[in-house]
Amino acid sequence: MNTSAWIINLIAIGCLAWAFFTNRQLALTGLKKGLRTLADIAPITVVVVSFVAIVLAFVTPESIGTVLGESSGIEGILVALGLGAVVHMPALLGFPIAGKVLANGGAAGPVAAFITSLTMIGIFTIPLEIKVLGKRFALARNIISAAMAFVIAIMIGVLL
């Protein structure tokens, strides 16, 4: 475990100890809710992580480098942006996937496109957005989000 993980874990343990010290019943209630939430997200997390592991077992680092690597250019960014917009999973699961892609030859620009589009574009939520916010606003928000994800990916690709 790296230093940051140790610090975060120590802070979390300290906060939990403080919570028990101040209000034991409320701390227990919070722990129970947290464990319930963990149990709720565990199945999808296992499925997504397993899927990524299987894909990475069959996809070579060279092919990742070709599609999403430094030489992929704008096309790699657009592919990653499209994948992020279409994939429907919690953003928290996107970060380990992004790390694996980077470790296997992916470039920072396409990875940034994937993460930003994953969090900002809602292909599967557009019907709900249209119903609640209106068609014009929902479409404008998603188009602007896609443009911003593209700009962010270009900036990250240039800076890194």
Structure description:
By secondary structure, the protein is mainly α. It has 2 domains: 1-58; 60-160, no CATH class. 85% of the residues lie in helices and 0% in strands. The chain is built from 8 helices and no strands. Helix 5 (91-103) packs antiparallel against helix 6.
Short description:
The protein has 8 helices and no strands.
**Ends: how far apart?**
25 Å
Number of helices: 8
Rough outline: globular
Total separate domains: 2
Overall mean confidence score, pLDDT: 88
Biggest sheet character: none
Count of distinct strands: 0
List the uncertain runs.
none
The helix-strand sequence is HHHHHHHH
User: By helix and strand content, what is the structural category?
Assistant: mainly alpha
The proportion of residues in beta strands is under 5%
How much helicity do the residues have?
Answer: over 70%
Radius of gyration: 19 Å
What is the fold's blueprint, element by element?
Layout: H1 3-22, H2 24-58, H3 61-68, H4 73-86, H5 91-103, H6 108-120, H7 126-133, H8 135-159
Helix pairs in contact: 1-2, 4-6, 4-8, 5-6, 6-8, 7-8
Which key terms come to mind for this protein?
mainly alpha; 160 residues; 85% helix; 8 helices; 2 domains
